[in-house]
What we know:
CinA-like protein, MoaB/Mog_dom, 3 domains, CinA-like_C, Alpha-Beta Plaits, single chain, CinA_KH
Amino acid sequence: MKSIVAEVITIGDEILYGQITDTNTQWISAEIDKVGIKTIRKTSIGDQESQILGILEEGFSRADILLMTGGLGPTKDDITKKTIAKYFNDTLEINKDAEAFVKDFFEKRGRPFTEINRQQAALPTKCTYLPNITGTAPGMWFEHNGKILVSMPGVPVEMKYLIEHEVIPRLKAFFELPVIEHHIISTIGIGESFLAETIEEWEDQLPEHIRLAYLPSFSQVRLRLTGFGDDRKIIQEQIKIEAEKVKPLIASYIFSESNQTIAEAVGELLKSKNATLGVAESCTGGNIAHMITLIPGSSAFFLGGVVSYSNDAKMNVLKVKQETLTNFGAVSEQTVKQMAEGVRITMRSTYGIATSGIAGPDGGTADKPVGTVWIAVSDGKTTEARLLKLGKQREVNIEYSSVAALNLLRRFIN
Length: 414
């Protein structure tokens, strides 16, 4: 079966200038992937006629579907409609259904229906009107030489409504779509290159219709197996077989077979053991607690945390000994162990984890350069600590240390 591919296009100077964050393309790509449409390119362009005309010409040359958002407002800088009409040698006319909807939209809100509002119902005659019940800018569907262009508002809630209720049903009816199935294996504690070397032989024997992608982040690499075909059950079974082949090769590094974060995986592990956690953070500044409390229902296993940034806080709240700090310093195995033990007692939790280090970009010494971080975990009987030697980027060091501390806890429990 022929693959159906799409290009997702955002229009707006505000996106190019960095004034707003483009979330539309990520969401659209994820949604169309579910129905077997592969995104081959994402493009952002400004509110310029030449750029819109150019991207239409380019897009139709490489994609079956162009999904475009932005530039459909009532102001003069919103030129998408008239530019698309120009591309198709078309004219704008008031669509009676769109006009009735827009008029009703304003009247129900006790607002006047002005001529500028009426012009939002002016659509190219060659398009199919897509009703947008969440706003006043209609969507537009064009069929062109066996390909599709859809123009939608840039406002996310309006775009999402149109994609879900108008666009995807029409695409499924217009195209014979293949099946795309994904399976994620999340690993931690092994670098991308080492992981690739470890599974190279397995990767080389993958069937042609099953592909592997490496998705790295802070000390984590997700392996994404993607299968293509006509029968979803068959593809799922084939991917499962390949996943079972690779798992024994990297078993000690796998923490999930989904898009779970390490915090979510640790949370599930704690709940399965009816265990609880307290965290003591110095160099990570509360980031671990933030990662955990992003999880709905984390109160079932997370009791609280202490950001003990100063030595006084370490001594007064976590009961780190004065002589420990004097003899070994705040960034040391001895201190971080006492922090983990102290927070477990303070929070009355099953486990305590702790971080203490030099996040940077300055503050290091010859013995303890920037990027020196100690992490620890304690259950009241055993306390383990690990030394991390990181770089000089503060945000990276904070994130990496947070992930490493959670993974230390995961391995400690297992």
